[in-house]
Structures are given as C-alpha cells and as structure tokens.
Design goal:
Blueprint lengths: L5 H13 L21 H8 L14 H14 L3 E5 L2 H12 L5 E5 L4 H12 L3 E5 L4 H6 L5 E7 L11 H10 L3 E5 L17 E5 L13 E5 L23 H13 L6 H11 L2 H20 L4 E5 L9 H7 L6 E6 L5 H7 L4 E2 L9 E4 L9 H7 L6 E5 L5 H16 L1
This protein binds pyridoxal-5'-phosphate (PLP).
C-alpha cells in the first residue's frame, strides 16, 4: 500500500501508532505519577536504561509518550520530547545542550519571549550573535571558532520574515553545526524539516497543532540528521549505544527530568485531539490569510501589509520555494494618525487578544504589548513599526472576516 496522505495519517495516528486497548481510538490518559513493578529487578533495569518503561511521570508517562510518537511520525524525525509549554521546550533544550563559552548564531527576528530568554543565556556566558537569517551571507559571516549552532524560526512573528532555511541547513551540515528551527508558524507538512537539514525542530504545541486555545504544550523533535558524536557537550553517561539518540537522551535527562517542565497527560490528550484536524485548519487559515492580506493591501487606510504570500513580500520567493503554506500570521501598518487601539476596538468578530494559531481570528497592537519590553530601538531592528497590528487569521468564513475589517475601517473614515 502506498503511504497514506498527511491528513489521513494525522486522523488515524493515535490509533495506529499507540495501539490503545479495548478498541479505544485514543491512547488512555493516566493520572498515575508512579509506576509499580512486580519484580524489583525490572525497576532497576528501567532506571539503568536497559529496559523501556515508566518510573515517575515527571520523566515519562504513557500519555505523553503517545503524543511524542505522533509528533515524531508527523515531522519525519527519530524521537521527540514534549514539555509543558513551547517556551519550556526551547529553554530546557538549549540549557541542556550548551554551556558557557559556546557560541550560537541566532535570528534577530525571534518570538518575543525567546528573544528575552536569549538575554538569560548571555548572562550565563553563552555567546550569541544576532543575524538576519533571511540572508545566508549574514549567517556565514557570524561564524567563530566556538560556534556550535544556528537558531532560527521558519516565519518570524510579527513582521513575517522568512528564514533561508535551505541555505542555512546546507551550510550547517557542511560545518557540523546544529541547526535548530522553531517551526511553530509552519507545522507539518508546511515545512519539510528533513529536506531543509534541520537538526532539531522546536514547536509550540499551544498554537496550530492544538489549535483551540484550550491547552499549553511544547515539543522538540530530533530529525536524525545531526552527528552527535562530534558534539562534545554530551555527557559520557548519555553516550548510549545508538549515537543518533545522544542528543535526545541528554535533553530528556537534563532538560525534562532535571528541569521538570513536564507536559501533563491530560494536556497531551487534548493536543492529540486538536492535531487530528491540523491540516484542515491550517489550509483554511492560510487561504483566509491570503484573501485578507489582498483585501487590506488595497485599502486607503492601510499603509503596508506584511504577509509572505504576497508577491511584494521581500522573501516571497523563499517562502514559495521552501514552504508549502505561507502561514496564517499577517501584520499591517495603518496610515499615520490612526491609533491602533482605537481601530481594534471597532472590530466585532476579531478578538483583541494575544495568542496565535487559534480557530478564531485574533488581533493586537504589537509595539505596546508583545514587544513592549524590547524598546523602540530593538523593535526597529526587528522591522516592527510603532503602529503595527498583528493578526492571527482563523478559520471563520472569509466573507465575515473581511466584512468585519470593512466596517471597522469605515468607522475610521467618518
Ligand atoms: C508561542 C510561541 C512560542 C512559545 O510557546 P508557548 O507554548 O506559548 O510557550 C515559541 N515560539 C513561537 C514561534 C511561538 O509562536
């Protein structure tokens, strides 16, 4: 049989990958923190990694493992670890793999809280260079003798810069550098992490994958493309038999077991249910985003629209070539003199809320909220204007979304 399509695989993944008992179509959700062993030797063997099993649910449980199996299959990787939030996945992974004196080349266009976390890394002695990841030349120019990794997002938020992942991945492979990609904006199958030679994919499950604004989660997926034997931060005790698992083992032990931001079994269940409709929601949101971007672009009160699906977007050609979806985040600048908050108050269907990747369309003023802490200079460096509005386009009927903007913009004209 030929390999089923991605939607088919997502809908049936829990049943087929996790083999729930009694005819159940979802993996069971356990409330047990502890796991009993009839023979103590078995407990010892699990502790020593000689046998697969669960001993304490901070480290692992059947429910979270079930979601990890689905995520690994979906990304085409070799192993995954889930965390309580996307930020926990990012921070725990980086803290478990790097040490003072290491150098990481980092995108200058980052999710606000990831950018803020980078300051913490700098305080700990990890060296960082922030570069424009839409240009491979800027990335290459930042390399030093102690460079270990490159960290980028597929499509950045709110300005929607698209990183040149194919060129960065190829260069990282040639230079034995870890390529870490935050794929939250372009969940599978939009971005082919393996073809782009990503080493580790990080994602906020809270966003498109769960999709309904009712659960937090994060994950890291090892794509199996990186040679961990050349990465000398792996502790001897995690240099297990299969070298492809060295990295994920250290992330599991240091990042999850020791740092402890574990995903709850109930959350894992909610995320796996949301995931069943991921491709449908993503396709609809993306289609809506392109239509809305086109509408807004033509309006007198709108100065500029930022959306990779528009032909005049600076990285439209990269997005077209490297992504199978332009995503559903778009931002725009109102013409000078219009207050973003006053405008947003006119919207009736679209919610004023921070969050993205939801079924509902959401909007917020960027400079005064999610990038307020960064200050005007840093915002300018990221391409964020002071009046920018960010939209996360939902799955509503597009005519209703456009009508809402039409009436809100017409209020301004009066
Ligand atoms: C939301 C988000 C995160 C953080 O995820 P949480 O689940 O909210 O912690 C990280 N990266 C990107 C690109 C995001 O949009």
């Amino acid at each position: 049989m030929t390999k089923p399509g991605v939607t088919t695989r997502q809908v049936h993944a829990d049943r087929l990958l996790n083999h729930p008992t009694d005819g159940a179509v979802h993996a069971s959700t356990t409330n047990s923190v502890l796991f009993e062993f009839e023979k103590t030797q078995e407990l010892v063997d699990v502790f020593q990694g000689k046998k697969v099993g669960h001993v304490y649910s901070r480290s692992s449980s059947g429910s979270v493992t079930a979601l990890q199996n689905i995520l690994t299959e979906m990304e085409g990787g070799i192993a995954s670890v889930c965390f309580a939030t996307g930020m926990a996945a990012i921070s725990s992974t980086i803290l478990s793999l790097f040490k003072a004196g290491d150098h990481i080349i980092v995108s200058q266009y980052l999710f606000g809280n990831t950018r803020s976390f980078m300051d913490t890394l700098a305080d700990l002695g990890i060296e960082l260079t922030f570069v424009d990841v839409t240009s491979i030349h800027d990335v290459i120019a930042a390399k030093r003798a102690n460079t270990r990794a490159v960290y980028a997002e597929t499509i950045a938020n709110p300005v929607t810069q698209v990183s040149d992942a194919r060129a960065i991945g190829k260069w990282c492979e040639e230079n034995s550098l870890l390529f870490m990609v935050d794929n939250t904006m372009t969940p599978p199958p939009s971005f082919d992490a393996k073809a782009m030679k990503a080493s580790l994919v990080m994602t906020s499950l809270t966003k498109y994958i769960a999709g309904h604004g009712n659960v937090l989660g994060g994950a890291i997926i090892d794509m199996g493309t990186f040679d961990w034997t050349g990465f000398d931060n792996i502790k001897p005790q995690y240099q297990v038999a299969d070298a492809s698992l060295w990295g994920i083992t250290q992330i599991k032990k240091k990042g999850l077991r020791d740092m402890g931001a574990t995903l709850s079994p109930q959350s894992a269940h909610l995320i796996s249910v949301g995931l069943e409709t991921l491709t449908l929601r993503m396709a609809r949101s993306t289609e809506n985003a392109l239509k809305l971007a086109t509408y807004l672009e033509g309006h007198d009160h709108i100065e500029r629209v930022y959306y990779p699906g528009l032909a005049n977007h600076p990285q439209h050609y990269i997005a077209r070539e490297q992504l199978s979806s332009y995503g559903a985040i778009l931002s725009f600048d109102l013409v000078p003199g219009i207050d973003p908050c006053e405008f947003l108050d006119q919207l009736k269907l679209v919610l004023s809320a921070t969050h993205l990747g939801d079924t509902r369309s959401l909007a917020l003023p960027v400079a005064s909220t999610i990038f307020f802490e960064n200050g005007q200079r840093e915002r300018a460096r990221m391409g964020i204007t002071e009046t920018m509005i960010r939209l996360s386009v939902g799955i509503e009927d597009i005519d209703d979304i456009v009508a809402d903007f039409e009436q809100a913009l017409s209020c301004l004209a009066q």
